[in-house]
Amino acid sequence: MQNYSPYYLLLFVCMGLMFLNALKKDKQLVHYLFVIFCGSLCMVAAQKLSAQSIGAYQYLIGLFTCATCNVSWLIARTLFREHSPISRRHVTFAATIAGLIMFNQTWHYLVSLDPQPLPTSDIIWRLKQGVNEVTILLSTSILALSFWEAFRGYSKKTQSQKMQSVIFGSAWVLAVFNASIFPKFIFSAAEIELYNPIIITSSALLIVFAMQGVMLLQAKVINNQALKQEDDIGTINNDTFNLNENCNQDVEPELIVGITKLINEQQLYLKASLKISDFAQALMVPEYKVSRAIRYHYKAANFNLFINQYRVKYAKKLLINDQTKEWSILSIALESGFSSLATFNRVFKSIVGDIPNEYRKQNGGYYNKGIRELVD
Q1: What's this model's pTM, rounded to 2 decimal places?
Q2: Are residues 12 and 115 part of one domain?
């Protein structure tokens, strides 16, 4: 007789992580996807635990198990791609797999209720077999894509990013090996059925913990970067602001014109994850020239501070604009070029003195009176 206690472990762990991420204040896209993924795994555990007691109705619970491997792929893209990780075609592909899973669960439910009408149609049975094959093929493909996302461009990654890739990729390999290959070597067919709850639970938790671990590592990196930006603001050397005339003469006027156009006309500072190399590439000059222009002409300690000053100025306008008064702080942060709410709050406070929400409350009414000097 099967021991179903591992499913309770899967249920409680996934439920705990689901609420932990759902209640997180500075949520990003990956947190929403992870909540959906954990919720679907909770439904997997609930279906297994309730199968004997509710019979055919277990397949109604099974309808909500449609966000496992497909959503894990979306999570992998979000974790390891900086620019446009998810587009409409990715959501469509994931939704297609979800639809196939729901079709299978609906089929099993109908057959369990009244098995007589369905077998009379050979076409329906062939359709069912075809859907099964397509579902298996797509699910296998999407597992491979999830693994590939972790190691895509591995040689160009930083040490921290490489560690994240190894954690995520290793968990996937171990989970697949544990679920499909390892049991066949050490168990008979009857034993595999007996130990199936342990196999499923251990494989699922490997992936869940790997995802959560990578998310925590990435959050730590973002926090460290934000703290570094604060340190840069607080440790600007007086020499940066008291440069001699020779330094200014080294900056080409054409370069200043180019940077000004990128800032004022193209608003390049609104691009997320902007790097100094993006400026250099757009202006077709070496990076050191852009850096020198920023320090000597614009009197900014570094590129991050230079860009963040424009982002904060843009965000201040959005915060007190009547047309964007219903926007959330997260929406304004993303619209202003910041990668996360935590970074936006820290940088905004370090430059303005208040967090964005306080600034909105204190200054929201002045915009209507026409006092626009607050953001100039």
Answers
A1: 0.63
A2: yes
